[in-house]
Design brief:
By secondary structure, this protein is mostly helical. 52% of the residues lie in helices and 0% in strands. It has 2 domains: 80 residues, no CATH class; 30 residues. It starts with 5 loop residues before the first helix and ends in an 11-residue tail after the last helix.
Length: 142
């Protein structure tokens, strides 16, 4: 978001490294606790880096951090949070986000997801694949 002086990266990286180590040891540190260690005037560049680090660690853990939760926690730094998260994906009010066809189950005519239909399609695909395998004798020779 902003230019950080080269000398400032030393302390920012040191704090971010401690944060990441604590996270990897299962402590789930709070960004607020690390911000409290420095003068409030130094928060923006540190907050920016800690948001990036925590976001990456949470995504690796299968979580999906949202800008909304961080805006609630850091309401005075909304512009910084927006810069870290980037622009909101465009969503149509009428349709919402588009589903991923590779992970979305088929939908029945009444609009419900049909998990049984998906299972049947997968089973048929597997059967077709096995039909093309060469057959071997199941008898053992002595």
């Amino acid at each position: 978001m902003s230019e950080v002086a080269t000398g400032d990266w030393t302390w920012i990286n040191a704090v971010a490294d401690r944060f990441e180590r604590a996270w990897k040891h299962g402590l789930r540190p709070r960004i607020e606790d690390f911000l409290a260690e420095v003068a409030e005037s130094r928060w923006p560049p540190l907050l920016e880096e800690l948001l990036r680090v925590e976001g990456e660690l949470r995504r690796r853990a299968g979580e999906e951090p949202s800008r909304g939760e961080y805006k609630l926690r850091f309401s005075q730094h909304v512009a910084l949070i927006e810069a870290v998260f980037g622009p909101e994906p465009h969503r149509s009010v009428a349709t919402g986000p588009r589903p991923d066809p590779t992970t979305t189950a088929p939908v029945t005519p009444d609009g419900e997801t049909d998990g049984d239909l998906l299972g049947l399609l997968i089973l048929q695909s597997v059967n077709l694949a096995f039909d093309h395998l060469p057959r071997t004798s199941s008898r053992r020779t002595r």
